[in-house]
Amino acid sequence: MEKKTQEEAIKQLYRKFEFRNIRQEEAGQAAEIERICFSANEACSEKMMYERVAKAPELFLTAIDRQTGRIAGFLNGLATEETSFRDEFFTDVSLHKPEGRTIMLLGLDVLPQYRRQGLARELMRQYLQRERENGKHIVLLTCVESKVEMYQKMGFLDCGIAESSW
Known about the structure:
Shape: globular
Radius of gyration: 15 Å
Number of strands: 5
Distance between the termini: 35 Å
Structural class: alpha+beta
Strand order of the largest sheet: 1-2-3-4-5
């Protein structure tokens, strides 16, 4: 995509969406979006989503549809000093260490009606920039095979098959 076209696409996203941290009262919305975006065995439980929002709201980035006022998509993670992704990050919010320099990304969720508009890419771009400015040095994620190419286009390196059973 040409630079001018990319810039216009980003401007369009800013006209359509507000990008900000999640609010406590939006945890239920986030849990519902997670249920829609992930299979039952991969989705964060409602209880866990509420815990993540309570413990680490600063590590959520939401895209709010300016027309509806509702979340269209979000990205969330936990901070740690660990440098290896393990399944417990999905289920144990006590592993969050705000001063940690590593971010374990736990989910990139975009509702189906908002996909193919560049929203996921913009959420990731903003999130990575923000966390770099906040002193984070490493961002790790785990994903299904079909998503590897998408994340590579966002700048991630494929480090092979994780030890995750999630």
